[in-house]
Design goal:
23% helix, alpha/beta, 8-stranded mixed β-sheet
């Protein structure tokens, strides 16, 4: 289970960073999911190994432009990709209204169904290989986090239990392993009784803008990787003003340490932080407060959470 940073800048793009967008995907790259879609996101996708054709759902965290201005162009390109299968867009109502207005104004016709769901409707929504829930955050406007919980995990047979119950090998083994209930010698066999997941479901949370990490308290347990904004260093946020509704590096790192999160990806940096020296300062500040696996977002960076729940940097930049 992987996250690729398609955009890590706050507010405006820079020469090195595009605005917010994150891809969530598996090794096979399909289907995949997009969280936020700032201006230029489809150009970032073209630099990756991902294909818009296989994009199953887009999740928008809030209505600010650096998180949603890229939607019309990406949807239009999807319409030219030859796809006929549906695409989901889950977003605040005002973002859905924005998309409807652009589609109507440009007279865009799509060969596939664009399913528009308000973020409030995405409570435990199931997709091809993940269940997705939402968590309200604290920002100047309503903002949300999306929690991705892996499903469709390979199941293994509990051979010891099957042997103990006198159930020999046969076609019913394959059915049980596929998650289907079956029968043997007139006895009903429940898949849940004789199989188990080959690994624990992996969990990734991708947040929108959020000045209060504690908003995640009810959802954070069991999270393998948290993707959270760290727009400013604390000293700079104090100068800019807390009215921005953003977090600082120190606050997020301290929260991750307190909740014993195994992995943290900091992102959504103010455009004032440019160059290696600034990024090193951000990293050192976070490392002084957080002892887990820490990643400082760079566009193109891909983080993998393996089947043991351990994170790894597998790509430091775009490879496509």
């Amino acid at each position: 289970m992987r996250v690729q940073v398609l955009g890590s800048s706050s507010g405006t793009p820079t020469t090195q960073r595009n605005v917010s967008a994150y891809a969530v995907f598996r090794d096979d790259l399909k289907p995949w999911y997009l969280v936020d879609c700032g201006e230029g996101t489809q150009h970032q996708i073209l630099k990756s190994t991902l294909a818009i054709y296989h994009l199953e759902a887009i999740f928008i965290t809030h209505k600010h432009g650096d998180h949603c201005y890229g939607l019309p162009g990406l949807i239009a390109s999807a319409g030219l990709s030859g796809r006929t299968h549906p695409m989901y867009l889950i977003a605040p109502d005002e973002v859905l209204s924005f998309v409807r207005a652009v589609l109507e104004m440009t007279e865009l016709t799509l060969a596939f169904e664009l399913k528009l769901l308000s973020v409030e409707q995405c409570a435990g929504q199931s997709f091809s290989w993940v269940d997705v829930t939402t968590c309200p955050l604290k920002h100047r406007v309503p903002s949300y986090a999306y929690k991705f919980v892996e499903t469709q995990i390979v199941r293994k047979l509990n051979i010891n239990k099957l042997t103990e119950h006198g159930i020999p090998s046969g076609p019913h083994f394959n059915l049980l392993q596929r998650g289907e209930n079956t029968s043997f010698n007139g006895q009903i066999l429940l898949s849940d009784d004789y199989t188990f997941n080959a690994w624990r479901a992996r969990v990734i949370i991708v947040c929108g803008d959020n000045e209060a990490p504690k908003c995640l308290d009810d959802e954070i347990e069991g999270t393998d990787l948290l993707v959270h904004e760290a727009t400013f260093l604390a000293v700079d946020l104090k100068k800019v003003g807390f009215h921005t509704g953003h977090s600082d590096v120190e606050r997020v790192a301290e929260y991750a340490q307190k909740r014993e999160l195994p992995s943290l990806l900091l992102t959504h940096f103010s455009a004032r932080y440019g160059g290696e020296l600034c990024m090193n300062r951000i990293k050192e500040t976070a490392q002084a407060r957080y002892s887990g696996a820490l990643y400082i977002a760079a566009d193109g960076m891909t983080i993998e959470v393996d089947k043991q729940g351990v994170s790894h940097l597998i790509e430091a930049q775009f490879s496509g």
